Amino acid sequence: MAQRVQSVQEFLQDSFYPLVAALCSEEAERIARKNNLGFCELVKPFCRLTSEVHMRDPNNQLHIIKNLKIAVNNIITQPPQPGAIRKLLNDVVTISQPAEGLVANVITAGDYDLNISDRSVKASVPWYSSWKDTLMGLNTSTFYSATTPWFEAYRESFLQSMPASDHEFINHYVACMLVVSSSEPDPVEQFLKLSQEQHRIQHSNEYSYPKWFIPNTLKYYVLLHDVSAGEEQRADSIYEEMKQRYGTQGCYLLKINSRGSNRGADEQIPDPWSQYLQKSSIQVQESCEDGLHTVISNKNTDHFIPLDGLGNDSKDGLSNNFKTHPLQLDHTSDSGCFDGTDYLKSNASLHESKKTNTGTPHGMCLTLTDHDRIRQFIQEFTFRGLLPHIEKTIRQLNDQLISRKGLSRSLFSATKKWFSGSKVPEKSINELKSTSGLLYPPEAPELQIRKMADLCFLVQHYELAYSCYHTAKKDFLNDQAMLYAAGALEMAAVSAFLQPGAPRPYPAHYMDTAIQTYRDICKNMMLAERCVLLSAEILKSQSKYSEAAALLIRLTTEDSDLRSALLLEQAAYCFINMKSPMVRKFAFHMILAGHRYSKAGQKKHALRCYCQAMQVYKGKGWSLAEDHINFTIGRQSFTLRQLENAVSAFRHILINDSKQTAAQQGAFLREYLYVYKNVSQLSPDGPLPQLPLPCINSSATRVFFGHDRRPAEGEKQAATHISLDQEYDSEFSQQWKDLEEQVVAASNKSAVSNFQPTQYCLNRYSDNSRFPLGVVEEPITVEVAFRNPLKVPLLLTDLSLLWKFKPKDFSSNNNGESKELMTCGKDMIGAEVISEFLINSEETKMARLKLFPHQTGELHILGVVYNLGTIQGTTVLDGIDSSVGFQTGKYIPNGTSVRGRQDLEIQGPRLNNTKEEKTSTKYGPDRRLDPIIAEEMPLLEVFFINFPTGLLCGEIRKTYVEFMNVSKCPLTGLKVASKRPECFTFGGSSTILTPLSPSTSEHSSAYKTVLKHSTSVCSLMSSASSVDFGAGTGSETEVIDVPLPDSVLLPGASVQLPMWIRGPDEEGVHEIHFLFYYESIKKHSKMSHRVLRHTAVICTSRSLTVRATAYRSNALEDEKGEGDNMLVFVDVENINTSEAGVKEFHIVQVSSNSKNWKLQESINLSEDKDIKLANREKGKLCLKSVRCKHLLDDYTFADIIFGNEQIISSTSPCADFFFRSLPSEFRRTQTQQSMNTSQGTVKQSLDNAVRLIQKCSEVDLNIIVLWKAYVIEDNKQLILEGQHHVVLHTVGKEAFSSAQKQESPEMVLFNFFRPESTSVPARPSPDHLSSLIKTSLHYPETFNHSFHQKSLCVVPVTLLLSNCSQADVDVIIDLRHKTTSPEMLEIHGSFTWLGQTQYKVQLKSMEVSRLQLKACFVHTGVYNLGTPRVFAKLSDQVTLFETSQQNSMPALIIINSI
Description:
By secondary structure, this protein is an alpha+beta fold. It is built from 29 helices and 57 strands. The longest helix has 38 residues, at 368-405.
């Protein structure tokens, strides 16, 4: 803000001062030029008096004058042109910039911290990231140090350059110095010539300029003596002659140049002229780094031209040429407007002018004594010549006014009379007419009053001056001389303010009236501007900032951009200096000021204003305002060649969420690219700077290690493995991790501590705390998420990754590191380059970039590097318009593209484990972009040939899997792990490893079959060990070895192996995960194994459902005497829907698998042995099973064939799927048993006796139902094969081939009480106890007896007792009839048992005992012999009571009479 160290009173006094003209002879000017100064410039630093001066007013009262300043100027006979004045002011503002290196002052205004005085060049544009610690309030100091020197310089130059006017005398010359050198041949004659020339200029009609105060101008004769060259005696004699001629008070001898031209190098003489010459020079001096400059040079001289200086041309012996003004413009540049950038100069001429102006010393021939002589000369001139002349003139004017108006002796005595009389009402300014044609004659009394007022004002007699101005104002208003009246009002207001003691308040309305008159009536903006400048300072000194701001804004018109910019800026500072700062008004007016500065060609000041306004607008959500400000800052910075700041400003526009239109955003982007390209050209070999577009979501970066998945080729499908196209699933990821951990543990024969899974794809969800592993010669793909925030498309060309690499040899003991290589060394790392990558408007698009490591070491991916540009035809951004190349992939670039980089900086997960981490904000590492390149490893590719996607439940399909080693290393230890091992098999150890090709075996059966030679349905037996199928004890069933030839796959080799797939028993879509595990023959330190994933999706549809139940047979031995037997009832139902296209199912074979039981034959009442099931049909089979005589560790397979071919169930794949289905069945059965038998936790196991009793009811018989389905597809009939398994555990309990759905009750009451814990019962259940002994009666079915011969019929009956348990059993046989009712007594009373009624027998394990009984009958008829009751208990158990055994089926006998 324009607040100076001096007070407002001092500023006003320095704005108006007595003017003294100077006429110098050519010789005198030459003497002064020895010091590179004109005479006026020589005395300029000494024109302020350092002591008080006294004079007397017209009332003879003593008046004290303090700090008086005078001005000595050369006579200029032509007024300066307005265009030249504008150019001068423009140059003054241009060279006045904030000083560099100053500590910025920060003003705290409400919620804003405003950096006012910081230099815009050094400020961190376009936004300030932090503020300085120094906070300074505006009310804490009387004089605020955050100055605006450009405004002060403008104001000072404006006041000095104002031309003299006829309506006021304040700028008229009061006296004239005539300066002659003592070395002249006739100095007195020269004085006479100068005197005549001054008289001619003032009084002849030839010259209308300059203006003179009074006709009788004071002439002061100065004899200039060069001490180093002239004769001092001659000078003294001439001076004595001058005193006699002009009087001692009218002349002076000034001696200078006491040193001569050769001064000592060690002597330092101050240079008081530099500050004044810098202000008065119209030559612009700026540093070469500031860019564009405005310079006006004089083509006749090498030195600068002062504002009031004269040329060196002489005419008639005089050194003055009064016909041209130094501010006179050349004809080529007289355009009338100097606020633009039409006047520019190259940097070369700028450097030259700077060197010329700043390197010229001043006062080289002057000593300090000479300085004192010049100062003494000015004081003598003022004390003895100027002030007495002014005092005399004031008295004369006072006397003239009194005599002409007939008033009292003095104006002082008349003041009261004038003001106390009848007051004439003042007319409104709108009622007054323009009187531009009204001119007062020079001797008019009104002008004499104004002349006297101006003289009193110049000598600081403000009270008398105010009285005169007030009187003149009334006279001018009465005459409607508005120009004169406005001048009187202006000076009256200033005089009133400057009166000591402030007897009256400042009449601001005087100034307002004067400003309005100057502007609206007189059309004189210079005078109006002077009023505004003076009044604004007065109002600000009284803290009336609101009024001052309004006054400054009133004069912002379109005729002068520079003036409007300066006044708007000062108004903005007024708003911020209020008691309640108006911050937004400050910012708004700073924007207006910056705009006007820009129009005036003041680029630096425009940039500074916008930067200051940005402090208010940034971060407040006013995005459009921020964009406008940053865009302007960028343009201004670029014009000033501040390219770094320009890039920052445009960058800020682009990275914000802009609300601009697409066209505007496109303009912003083009500007940024153009500026950025200019910046990059300054340092083409420098590091690539950061680009703001497109936005990169670093946390979404994904890294994939390995080759891309091969596409499917016909019936050949590659393993899915892992790809960037797959979405991350945490549940699946954990499943794969568990599978890998199991297969690693199986491979190592023990669990692995600190297991780390293989990571192929790293993302934000994966564990990135450790360094990932890559493999030499295998690509690393980095997926970068680009987002285009703009509404215009972005075209990235030559897009690639930026990396650095440290080669290391991991095979040696000492890991040697080489020098870091960054973005070079293609023999180490190869990088893929995407030639064109288009991102449409507001689109998020992924770019996949690859690196190809050729050496082992540590790789660090730093970021991406690319050329940023846009394309033509950006108005259609939907990617449909083919005219701009959206469909062809070739885009037409529009304009400039620039090269830069963006870094990928990923923040790791926040740590939250320890107390310290929970109480602070700490983040762990994320190393997904820092892979370690390990040694070469084998690489397996797996292809599935004719792999089915749809199966029937239980269907068996034979496919082939091709294993290919595409690396240069052999692989071994190939295994596969899966959570669904029951769904596939590679065959047992007896499987042929060189199968037929897929084409020749397409229509062959998936089973191993042999032709049936017998037509019977008796079983054919075979045996197999579970170890052959990976189901033995101690083996992990989910990890399966792949039967590779020689267990090794050589580099480049491939092998095809058969694989059988069985459709899961549940209907629906199933995902089967295959994890292939393999190792390298050579052990590596970094990578021990590799895995390959595959997910097969199979959709199964319903086929058959099988349920089976086992019952004990009545016969203890079959006809063949093979021992114990059972009946197995198998129900098969076709639940397939017609949508699957299945015509019918054929049951071709039923096989059994058990260590204890085997199927013997089928009891089929129908003669048709072919079992066909159409849709929704159900079939029932009754099969007889017998106990195996020899208990073996191997499983016994028994096949009952219903077709023409026997499927050997003990071989692959039938046995494979059976054995692999056992674990899940067992787990399911055990879970159900534990849920049924106990509601609590099992704390102790049952004792051996209970287990033995339970085993009596256990069957351990497995049924395999093999079937064929006839399917019509594409008018062709296909035959599908399959098998279902039923596991029979308990006699009499129904078992199913698939898990039955249990319907949950609709509503269950919630139990709030904990149930009482019930322990496992120590006694077995009654069902188990009643199944210890199996009984059977052997007797003749019919018996003939002659009751006439013998009344009693005795029939021998054999009772067979069979111990079904593995322990000794005590048996009690009770033959007594149980009489429960009269009816039962009647039934049993017809026959009776003879002999003992009760027997006790002990049976060993699995022993069969025979008991001979006799039944006695008295009548013919049909009798039931099954009345004996059998009780049994374990022999070694005392606590158990005898339990009644289950009765067999009724034993009927027919008694006939002969």
